Amino acid sequence: MTTNRLLLGPGPSPVDQRVLRALSEPLLGHLDPEFLRIMDEIQELLRYVFETRNRLTIPISGTGSAGMEASLVNLLEPGDAAVVGIAGVFGERMVDIVERSGAKPVAVRADWGRPIDLSLIEEAVANSHPAVLAIVHAETSTGVLQELEGLADLAHRHGALLVVDAVTSLGGHPVGVDAMGIDVCYSGTQKCLGCPPGLSPITFSDRAMERIHARKQKVQSWYLDVSMVEKYWGADRTYHHTAPVSMNYALREALRMIREEGLEPRWKRHERNHRGFVAGIEAMGLEMFVSRKNRLWSLNSVRVPEGIDEARVRVRLLERHGIEIGGGLGPLKGKIWRVGLMGSGSTRENVLLVLEALRESLEFEGKVCPSGVSAAERVYFP
Amino acid sequence: MTTNRLLLGPGPSPVDQRVLRALSEPLLGHLDPEFLRIMDEIQELLRYVFETRNRLTIPISGTGSAGMEASLVNLLEPGDAAVVGIAGVFGERMVDIVERSGAKPVAVRADWGRPIDLSLIEEAVANSHPAVLAIVHAETSTGVLQELEGLADLAHRHGALLVVDAVTSLGGHPVGVDAMGIDVCYSGTQKCLGCPPGLSPITFSDRAMERIHARKQKVQSWYLDVSMVEKYWGADRTYHHTAPVSMNYALREALRMIREEGLEPRWKRHERNHRGFVAGIEAMGLEMFVSRKNRLWSLNSVRVPEGIDEARVRVRLLERHGIEIGGGLGPLKGKIWRVGLMGSGSTRENVLLVLEALRESLEFEGKVCPSGVSAAERVYFP
């Protein structure tokens, strides 16, 4: 039996019992008519969550990074340019994948912790005639939300397709694939969707599918070639690879829970718990890393106070309080904590628990803070 | 609640309750010390099952086809030659992946249903100076076991690495990675390992790792780049992608069950049930598709008798008897049934059940056969 942890890091997020029970249902074959109906239901539910009518809206059989790779390698051909926004680990990862595909990345950078300036993106797109404009909506390494308004128009005006990484936003923040004009959007199951890691929901616009069907050469990855995968998920039902049956059960159940809650109430829940957390953090005399208007609700980055060894605090949170939070990556190592309030982990109880546990752990390290609990409570019971 | 099916097709195979329960354990973070210990145990257990001391012996975060792609794209660079044995769907798939990697496939073919001739492989290797010799040990599309003796010597003599697809043999047939001199061997969890689909166990010899570390250019796939993945599974514990936590729980439990049973008794069980099945099939007046000495124990292909619509029989097996078996693929469509006796599905009870259900379903189609049950029983109680 594994130890019970409260998962308030950058993901995986806590998984509801309903979803865990679905995981352990007896297996159906991946071509069983009953499983094919489950696949149809998953596609329908994913369209609801992505807010899209795109036909090809499916889970890729890998984690969020497989979705990132699938989105880029299916659209890009050698020699293409791709403008990529970078302000954290996941933008960097996109550039690495673009390079491996033989395409030419054009990086548009912002400091880690800030969103990328639209005018810089505009300049890069106008100058490089890219096949793809790729950007991270919710940068898990920093806690920054990148606004998407205007990006699709910009991309389409220059003949590019817009790829959006919504790994840490889908199900917790509005993404609105059709309304935003996104061509390819992917996510991971283990963040705001409240499912274990292992699948990457992805959706392709008709424009993206036209591009894929008109490719001059085959997609470099056989496993992630959506022109083949779509035949299994579509009317043909042609065998491609064996679907991860149990993970698809779990995803269906997690998506059903989202539909029951409703997207809008779910976003509001993520927003409210984020506000409660921030109020508590500030009442404790701590500081958020990202400025107010660019903050993710799902991933809260907190500056580590001067003189505190952040790793020791995380060890105490885990060992004494059973709570997992994340540390900083790359240039932010040692400088921030990352507190995820995602999916079924985004609750008032968890906000209060993590605030109090953080206070106790800082006190143990010799830094006495006021409690953040009553400031947080004022958000819930104003 | 999903319908209970007896999965006797080409996979997924039936999954034991212990493994299903493990799937639904509460989640740990992918960098939690407790999860890192689970990863260590999985690597140790995989070494046992692969019969290897290879350091890099891990599950790839995708299905068996992801393992196939990982093995080829990590070893091959553009312009390399790769000799590939083809006698079924999975050999063809290897060629497709080799081409996508920019390498040059040299195909050595056999008729579907027969093993590939060693002398033809020898000729191809001697003529093409390949970087890789790749072969399918257990061809799931035909039910043929390809002998591995002599292949490693041949490959190594010519400076090539030996890649073996053991998707449908590992855990059901001896594979013996170190004894056979295999450089890269991969499998899938949903066949003889008795775990749901979603992971692909893979192992790399030191020779293979040297080749990978000396690559001139990056592996084309970021997700499957084992020079990065090994840092997460090794001492560094560097984050690469979020491990599919729940699937790893299930794999650990399935591997523990294999260690408890013992490899040798497990192979013997697969062999005995295969023999029981064949005895029954022949007593019914039906014919196996593959000649006696080349048959897989895990995947039994049976010729469809003249005048029988094989798909109707499969529908009746599924709907009336709750048993899934597979049909033929490609040139074998309509010509064979594929009956999997894999992992925890390989039991005397299942052999008797499927023989009797097949008899009833053929009778329903107007073909009256003798029962195969007593002939099968003579294998179990001679």
Q: Indicate the structural class of chain A.
A: alpha/beta
- Tell me the name of the CATH homologous superfamily of the largest domain in chain A: Type I PLP-dependent aspartate aminotransferase-like (Major domain)
Biggest interface, chains and residue tallies: A-B, 63 and 63 residues
- Count of spatially separate domains of chain A: 2
| Biggest pleated sheet of chain A | 7 strands, mixed
Q: Terminal Cα separation of chain A, in Å?
A: 41 Å
So how many helices of chain A?
A: 14
CATH architecture heading of the largest domain in chain A: 3-Layer(aba) Sandwich
Low-confidence stretches of chain A: none
- Series of secondary-structure elements of chain A, N-terminal to C-terminal: EHHEHEHEHEEEHEHEEHHHHEHEEEHH
Overall spatial form of chain A: globular
**Residue share in helices of chain A?**
40-55%
What is the β-strand count of chain A?
A: 14
Strand fraction of chain A: 5-15%
Q: In CATH terms, what is the fold-level topology of the largest domain in chain A?
A: Aspartate Aminotransferase, domain 2
Multimeric state of these chains?
homodimer
The level 1 CATH classification of the largest domain in chain A is Alpha Beta
What features would you describe in this structure?
2 copies of one chain form a homodimer. Chain A is of the alpha/beta class and 382 residues long. Chain A folds into 2 domains: 17-260, Aspartate Aminotransferase, domain 2; 263-380, Aspartate Aminotransferase, domain 1. In chain A, 42% of the residues lie in helices and 14% in strands. Chain A contains 14 helices and 14 strands. Chain A has helices at 17-23, 33-50, 64-75, 89-100, 118-128, 151-157, 177-180, 206-213, 226-233, 245-261, 263-283, 310-321, 348-364, 373-380; strands at residues 6-7, 57-60, 81-86, 104-109, 132-136, 138-139, 144-145, 161-165, 184-186, 200-204, 299-303, 323-324, 326-327, 336-340. Chain A has a 7-stranded mixed sheet with strand order 2-10-9-8-5-3-4, with helices on both faces. Chain A is globular, with a radius of gyration of 21 Å. Chain A starts with 5 loop residues before the first strand and ends with a helix. The mean pLDDT of chain A is 97. At the A-B interface, α1, α3, α4 and α10 of A face α1, α3, α4 and α10 of B.
